[in-house]
Design goal:
By secondary structure, this protein is α+β, with helices and mostly antiparallel strands. The protein has a single domain (4-148), classed as Jelly Rolls (Sandwich), CATH 2.60.120. The chain has helices at residues 4-14, 28-43, and strands at residues 47-56, 59-66, 72-78, 82-93, 98-105, 111-116, 122-133, 140-148. The longest helix is centred in the first third of the chain and has 16 residues, at 28-43.
């Protein structure tokens, strides 16, 4: 069975952000991209546990309980109005009473991926951030797919 890390490399090479920029008010293009990604994940035998689409201006926080018995991949992608999209995963530190960074992908693409196996089963905060828009845009649509082996 392929590992998630290897599979994410394949998705990265086959991902083409062909979605329409938000100014057209069309949701279908980002859903079409997500459907292609989910089909690839399903074909490789991985299980999608969450898929969502939404508008994004600067950043969005999502919360998900992840268990230590799985290796997860989190894949965020955006329409063509975004030049640079980042993803970060945080865990809550009871002692510090704040969210602390676990890992992130802050590369310069309009998609971002992280893979990890949680140390313990708990709720994690997932933050998607638009670092840079394509000139002329200040809002976009994004998708987030979470899956495990």
């Amino acid at each position: 069975m392929r590992t998630i890390s290897f599979f994410m490399l394949l998705i990265g090479f086959s991902f083409f952000a062909q979605g329409q920029c938000i100014n057209g008010k069309l949701a279908k293009p980002i859903h079409d991209i997500g459907a292609e990604i989910i089909a690839q994940i399903d074909n490789e035998g991985f299980e999608v546990v969450r898929a969502e689409y939404d508008l994004i201006f600067t950043s969005k926080d999502n919360y998900r309980t992840l268990t230590s018995s799985w290796e997860y991949a989190l894949f965020a992608f955006a329409d063509n109005g975004v030049a640079d999209l980042d993803i970060a995963v945080y865990e809550y530190d009871d002692l510090l009473e704040q969210w602390t960074l676990v890992l992130k992908d802050d590369g310069p693409e309009n998609s971002a991926t992280v893979t990890f196996t949680p140390d313990e089963s708990q709720q994690y905060k997932i933050t998607i951030t638009v670092k840079e828009y394509v000139e002329g845009y200040d809002v976009a649509r994004y998708g987030l797919v979470i899956f495990h082996n």
